[in-house]
Design brief:
- The chain has a two-stranded parallel ribbon with strand order 1-2. The chain has a two-stranded antiparallel sheet with strand order 3-4.
- It is built from one helix and four strands, in the order αββββ.
- β3 and β4 form a beta hairpin.
- It is elongated, with a radius of gyration of 15 Å.
- With 64 residues, it is of the alpha+beta class.
- It is 19% helix and 19% strand.
Amino acid sequence: MTATADLFAIAVAALTGTTSAGANVFSTLDWPTWNGSYPCLYIHAPEEDKDSTGRAGGPQFTVT
C-alpha cells in the first residue's frame, strides 16, 4: 500500500528540476522557511478520507 507521504515524495521527485521552479518543489511535510526565491511549487492533498482497518495492532487506515 502506498502512503500519502510516498505519493508526495513521488510527485516532488517528478517535478524537481523539470519545471521553472527548479529545486523549489516542496510537499506538506517539508515546507521550509521562505528564502525569497520564486517560483516555487507546494504539493498538497486538499482532502483525504481515512477509513480504519480495525483495532488490531497499531493505527491503520485506508486513505483515499
